Amino acid sequence: MVPITYYLLLAAALFCMGMFGVLVRRNALVVFMSVELMLNAANLTFVAFARMRGDNLGHVSAFFVIAVAAAEAAIGLAIVIAVFRSRGSILLEDLRTMKH
After folding, report:
1. pLDDT band of 35, cuts 50, 70, 90
2. Among 25, 47, 54, 68, which has the minimal tally of Cβ within 10 Å of its Cβ?
3. 4-95 is a CATH 1.20.950.20 domain
């Protein structure tokens, strides 16, 4: 049986990689992927604690986070496509101004 510490260390590493991607990258798609990585790290933490406690609450929470992440990805991708069609770029520094 794998100790919970390993799961939590993996979740922390995934979350840090996602945070690094959000803070450093300039491409909107990479930022969305980094946010998804951070949400998956939270899911791993929920499931690890649920396994440790022996209940299903963490699994239910992870399921809802997955549903919210899917909606966020769909809406975010639609916004990125709309911005790319209107401006021709998806770099975040080009999106700082709201002027067309």
Report:
1. very high
2. 54
3. no
Query: CB count, 10 Å around CB of 70?
Result: 11
| Whole-structure pTM value | 0.86
| DSSP output for 42-72 | HHHHHHHHHHHHT-SHHHHHHHHHHHHHHHH
CA 56 to each of CA 9, 39, 49: distance values in angstroms, whole numbers, following the listed order:
21, 19, 10
CA 24 to chain centre: 15
CB atoms within 10 A of CB 38: 20
Domain segments of the chain as ranges: 4-95
Tokens linked to 88:
């021709």
